[in-house]
């Protein structure tokens, strides 16, 4: 089962920033197709295996100054955890996802 790993925000930010850099590489038209495929494979591997998937996903999705591709990848990480890992993650991590997701889309009273 997946366990929630508690690291400092600096640790999560460093991993997330590296992910953002890698995602930006996929958008580079000069990147050879073979390298682009390696980047996609690495991103998929991170999504499937990293215990930091939720934390990094939320971090990337919250970055207002990041590209749409980077923020979308953050949301995809969260979606993957909810769809594919929900039954394996801890209750604490489920609460973290719920609270974090709500913070991305605050309610607006009319």
What does this entry show, briefly?
This protein has 110 residues and is mostly helical. The chain is 69% helix and 0% strand. Helix 3 runs antiparallel to helix 4.
Strand content is under 5%
Number of strands: 0
Residue stretches low in confidence (pLDDT < 50, at least 5 long) are 1-5
Number of helices: 5
Helix content: 55-70%
Radius of gyration: 15 Å
Order of helices and strands: HHHHH
Shape: globular
Q: What summary fits the major beta sheet? A: none
Distance between the termini: 42 Å
The mean pLDDT is 87
Structural class: mainly alpha
Q: What descriptors fit this protein?
A:
mainly alpha, globular, 5 helices, 110 residues
Topology overview:
Layout: H1 9-26, H2 33-49, H3 53-62, H4 68-84, H5 91-104
Helix pairs in contact: 1-2, 1-3, 3-4, 3-5
């Amino acid at each position: 089962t997946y366990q929630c790993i508690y690291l400092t925000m600096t640790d999560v930010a460093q991993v997330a920033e590296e992910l953002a850099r890698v995602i930006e590489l996929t958008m580079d038209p000069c990147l050879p197709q073979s390298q682009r495929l390696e980047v996609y494979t690495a991103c998929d591997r991170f999504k499937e295996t990293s215990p930091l998937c939720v934390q990094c996903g939320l971090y990337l999705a919250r970055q207002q100054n990041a590209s749409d591709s980077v923020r979308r990848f953050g949301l995809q990480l969260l979606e993957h955890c909810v769809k594919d890992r929900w039954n394996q993650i801890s209750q604490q991590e489920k609460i973290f996802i719920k609270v974090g997701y709500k913070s991305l889309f605050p309610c607006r009273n009319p």
